[in-house]
Amino acid sequence: MRLKPGALLRFYSLCGILVQVAATKSKARGSQGQFPLTQNVTVVEGGTANLTCRVDQNDNTSLQWSNPAQQTLYFDDKKALRDNRIELVRASWHELSISVSDVSLSDEGQYTCSLFTMPVKTSKAFLTVLGVPEKPQITGFTSPVMEGERMQLTCKTSGSKPAADIRWFKNDKEVKDVKYLKEEDANRKTFTVSSTLDFLADRSDDGAVVSCRVDHESLNSTPQIAMQVLEIHYTPLVKIISSNSWPEEGQSIILTCESKGKPVPEPVLWTKDGGELPDPERMVVNGRVLSISFLNKTDNGTYRCEAKNPIGRNSTEYVLIVHDVFNTLLPTTVIPSLTTATVTTTVALTTSTSTSATAISTRDPNALAGQTGPDHALIGGIVAVVVFVTLCSIILLGRYLARHKGTYLTNEAKGAEDAPDADTAIINAEGSQVNAEEKKEYFI
Fold first, then answer.
1. Which terminus of the chain is more exposed, N or C, with fewer CB under 10 A?
2. For the residues 351-365, what does the mean pLDDT come to?
3. Can you list the positions of beta strands (E) in 131-252?
4. Strands 301-309, 121-130: parallel, antiparallel or unpaired by DSSP?
5. What distance, in Å, lies between the first and last C-alpha atoms of the chain?
6. How would you label 53-66 residue by residue, b for 16+ Cβ within 10 Å and e otherwise?
7. Taking the complete model, does pTM exceed 0.70, yes or no?
């Protein structure tokens, strides 16, 4: 059977269509396992963002990157948008990577990677751009500040995205009770943040370092800090220090007036009982020190030290009480004198008699230890007692000697006085000692 030419043409056309349909279905079945993969990217303003699109299974199908405005950036390895900040990193059948340098806030948005299969498959990657906060500044401080005045310090920073966090510190100790304010900038992308520290000035704050710290994720754990050193002026604080806690007559005392204020106080003024110092020769002022020598009862009273500076004046008092001298003199003990008489009798020899009298007086060698000043009345009394006791001892001794006269016996051979010498007296002795005459000898 012979076919007509028109019928043959229609047959070939139908076969071509069937082959094309079959090829399209086969390609569609092969592309079912092909999916582009992307990741979200966060970058600091001014940094570089890397966008990567990967395909695990690809049968030579093209890849494309486009920006949030759906402008093609790269189609395979061909650059489509004239932007010198956009560069190709890598292009293959399985990956298309590009980089965007010097990123700005306007670059933030959703970027699309397209895989040109049937149908076209896409994957989204969101680029987040962090706004770096500006260096903070502290305002509201005027130097100097008077004690008791209210201070309001404000710390402010702009350009952060998202909004930055502000913290206050005083000498490295965080202050919690602060006010916080957040405002959106004109570009409607970044924020201006401010915080206010409110407190009453105190003298303890003088020289303190107040710092404002800005924390933000774009700073990579290195916060931005602004500092302010406080200068507080206050009236003097006065205190008197004594060198002697128990002053006695005859001693010395040193009173030191310590004054602290800002500005530094002028030289201090010393007064006694509301008037000038009564004895300039003994009461010497040297700067802040008052020295009093040879204390006596007339020095008792209230001593005032006054200090002043341009802010004001202040004073304090010290009550001086001079005590009596602590006397450690012990009483004198008098021991009555003893009298002894000794008589020696010898035969044919000269009789000798000796008498001795001894008076003993003892006194504590430490009687005057610790005495710091003379007491004339006490010394006079002691001397009188000693003289009286001595006189009494002499009178008693005289009476004793007058009443006790000694009677003594000497035994000499009778007739011995007529002998020319002692040997003849012994030979011519007429009797023994039994018949010897008694001789008396008196001791006066």
1. N
2. 33
3. 137-139, 145-146, 150-160, 165-170, 173-175, 179-184, 191-200, 209-215, 224-229, 232-242
4. unpaired
5. 208
6. bbbeebeebebbbb
7. no
